[in-house]
Design goal:
The protein is mainly alpha-helical. The protein is 86% helix and 0% strand. α4 packs antiparallel against α6. The chain starts with a helix and ends with a helix.
């Protein structure tokens, strides 16, 4: 219980320090752009593959249920709603938690145990601002962008399956699919992704920045970053969906 309370205190202090450092100079824009590239461009292959397969598989699995009621024409609408409201944000967040979270946790953990972070302090560089703020900001910016891309490739996979089975045209697929999507749905998904990206980056940085016990600590930091980030993503998904439900007119 004591260790949990200490962890909550340290995590809260880490969060407060992030916001204090985030809005003070210098901003390290070059490092921020580099981290955006690391988070965004280097995750495109996994996002593309996973999103495309998800679109195909979800369409194939949904078709028999709708066909039983003679409602296969609802497939584009069903897939679009599922992707935009839930699947794309969750898939993107989980992939980033696994790939980006472990990478950041291991990188910062390695720097911590080899005393590179202390060396930065000696060189008059604020390691928290240079390492933590840039990486957390990068994940906060890039996860929503990756989520929108995941929606696109997921719909592409769904369209190919629908076209192969129902011979639907692309304009008809898009018109049917987006007929039930509102600005509120898109805004909610982007908002969720911003929270997901921020949580993934901050948790990974916290675990890496506080790693200890040599090389074993690096492995534990990377593993803890992934597990905790995924857990927080699911908690945030549940809470945000509940808030959206309460605020519906």
């Amino acid at each position: 219980m004591d260790s949990f309370a200490v962890g909550v205190h340290d995590g809260s202090a880490f969060l407060v320090r992030f916001f204090v450092e985030r809005f003070s100079r210098p901003f390290h824009l070059r490092e921020l752009v580099k981290q955006c590239y690391e988070v965004g461009c280097k995750s495109l292959f996994l996002i593309t593959l996973t999103g495309f397969i998800t679109g195909i598989v979800f369409t194939k699995q949904s078709r028999p249920s709708l066909a039983a009621f003679g409602a296969t024409s609802w497939l584009p609408s069903l897939i679009t709603v599922a992707l935009v409201r839930s699947l794309a944000p969750l898939i993107t967040a989980l992939i980033c938690a696994g790939k980006v979270g472990s990478s950041i946790g291991a990188e910062l953990g390695s720097m911590k145990v080899t005393e590179q972070i202390e060396a930065m302090e000696v060189s008059a560089i604020n390691p928290f601002k240079y390492l933590v703020v840039t990486r957390t900001t990068a994940t906060t910016l890039m996860v929503p962008a990756l989520m929108l891309y995941c929606c696109l490739v997921g719909l592409a996979g769904s369209y190919l399956n629908v076209h192969a089975n129902e011979a639907a045209s692309l304009p008809a697929f898009l018109k049917s699919g987006f007929s039930t999507i509102t600005f509120r749905d898109a805004f909610a998904s982007v908002t969720k992704s911003v929270f997901f990206g921020f949580s993934i980056g901050l948790i990974a940085c916290y675990k890496g920045f506080n790693a200890s016990s040599g090389t074993q600590g690096v492995g534990r930091a990377a593993n803890a970053a992934v597990v905790l980030a995924m857990f927080v993503v699911f908690i945030e998904e549940m809470l945000i969906v509940q808030v959206i439900t309460w605020t519906k007119p």
